[in-house]
Amino acid sequence: MKKCLHGNAARPSADALTSVQFHPNAQVLMTAGLDQSLSLFQVDGKSNPQIQSIRLEKFPVHRAAFSRDGETVIATSLNEARVKEFSVCPEGGALLLSGTRGYLHLLTLKTREVVSSMKINGEVVGVAFSPDGSKVFANSEEGEVYVWDLRSSRCVSRFSDEGCVTGTSIAASRDGRYLACGSQSGVVNVYSQEACLRSDKPRPLKAVMNLLTPVTALTFNPSSEILAMASRSEDEAVRMLHLPSLSVFSNFPVSKRKIVYRASSLDFSPHSGFFSLANNKGHAPLFRLLHYKDF
């Protein structure tokens, strides 16, 4: 793994970054944050020139994401009391909004209407989709994971995340093999997705204990070989798990000096050639994963 020039070096943010994401089909990185701006950069690993930056008036960005086709950016603000968290559905035509008091709302992008709602006990701390988008895993603050069938809006299963008192995050691998649940204590449990769909008491394949503060971000790489994990409560609290061997890479973070700081968002490029994160210093550190040949 090689450290590159920051992804947003051409225009660092004046405040903490909250979102970083690679475009689904172009060599472009998007950053957004509390300075009310949203920026796009051409990623070459050398100079990463700025393409465009827009200012969103009175809109400190809490979360920003590309639509599945990459033609639209969706953003929510800290100023919006009811809905800050959302996920873009895998089939691309809808968003799943995390509301208050355990509600999840499915909103179609075409008409921008809520077509169905689901409710869990406790607050929703994260959602993850099965590869075809038919099912959603919702993690609750109580450490319970609910499995919903989106077509029927029915809860088809639920299980307790093993050893978890307070849940904080969740992610699913794109190949449908793995589900990762993060907790307040810093533990990340990695499950077989199939076992989570079949059993109400699945056992983790691995409990990763390398983070010591709440796990606030979990992201699988596109080939489902790496799980990136982070806590925004601590500087340099980012780790990567090699999934085939279920072992944590010892060479990340790569530098002895601080680069990562407090990371709130993580992403891999479409073919895993690059990895970036959003930190509280307004930077998007960029890394080249040399094992992967393509962007």
UniProtKB/TrEMBL annotation:
<dbReference type="GO" id="GO:0032040">
    <property type="term" value="C:small-subunit processome"/>
</dbReference>
<feature type="repeat" description="WD">
    <location>
        <begin position="124"/>
        <end position="158"/>
    </location>
</feature>
<dbReference type="InterPro" id="IPR015943">
    <property type="entry name" value="WD40/YVTN_repeat-like_dom_sf"/>
</dbReference>
<comment type="similarity">
    <text>Belongs to the WD repeat UTP18 family.</text>
</comment>
<keyword id="KW-0853">WD repeat</keyword>
<dbReference type="InterPro" id="IPR036322">
    <property type="entry name" value="WD40_repeat_dom_sf"/>
</dbReference>
<dbReference type="InterPro" id="IPR001680">
    <property type="entry name" value="WD40_rpt"/>
</dbReference>
<protein>
    <recommendedName>
        <fullName>UTP18 small subunit processome component</fullName>
    </recommendedName>
</protein>
<dbReference type="InterPro" id="IPR045161">
    <property type="entry name" value="Utp18"/>
</dbReference>
<keyword id="KW-0539">Nucleus</keyword>
<dbReference type="GO" id="GO:0006364">
    <property type="term" value="P:rRNA processing"/>
</dbReference>
<dbReference type="Pfam" id="PF00400">
    <property type="entry name" value="WD40"/>
</dbReference>
<keyword id="KW-0677">Repeat</keyword>
<keyword id="KW-0698">rRNA processing</keyword>
<dbReference type="GO" id="GO:0034388">
    <property type="term" value="C:Pwp2p-containing subcomplex of 90S preribosome"/>
</dbReference>
